[in-house]
Amino acid sequence: ITPRHILDYMNYLSHDGGRKDYKVGGQSALSVRKIIGVLRQVLDYAVLHGDIKFNPALQVPLPKKTNKKDERQVFLTAEDAQKMLDAFRNEEIGPMVYTTLYYSLRRSEALGLRWQAVDFDANTITINHTVVGGSHIVAKDSTKSYCSRRTYELLPDVKDLLLKLKDQQEDYKHRLGTGYHNNDYIFKNPNGVPYRPDSLTRSFKRALERHGLPQMRYHDLRHSTASILVDKGWDINDIKEWLGHSDISTTANIYAHISHRRK
User: Fold this and answer.
1) Whole-prediction pTM value?
2) Pick from 3, 31, 106, 118: CA 20 to 30 A from residue 143's CA?
3) Cα–Cα distance between 93 and 201 in angstroms, integer?
């Protein structure tokens, strides 16, 4: 294997192939960097064990990092967010989107919300469990960081929404009988099966299309909450606490993106 082979492979990934969704075009610069990064590690291992004398991938420059990730981020205003909530009112995932926007939840945190984390008497809701993965669910009794483990006041609108959802789930359970999957998760399919992360992402995108709303990532709901709080005059430290950031520099970066957008 020569550096030329590595370069040809990079060009293939960038322009002609490597996509698993059969869409036209190549992979992004970020994806190519990740793939070649793994290849470098493999060839380093080969050097270490004496299979090859040098790592040919080290001589090939990686594609430059782009700001495409920043460009595709969406920061909804309060007015835009309200339009979305109105449009999602009758969507199955509507309650989840509503709760996510209110509390600036990560997708894993929203999927991991359980009824035991909600205290309707004390009016609190606690983020202490997450669900990650794609087609397979991986549940964890932990959060991204210590600061991500947080307790919010159960706001009146969210409380009413969750109580209605609880009644609805009891109705589904009664109707389906043994066909209902019993578990403590709040957001799930009518048959009780919890949402998978990948299916939630697809449902969210399809709902946006149905209502003629701009395409965005589910994670953009979290950033939109931060944007709205900035509009409301919240201090950066208060926003850091609300979002559950462990480092204020992360919050500051979001501030910078919001400012750049408005300029």
Assistant:
1) 0.70
2) 31
3) 10
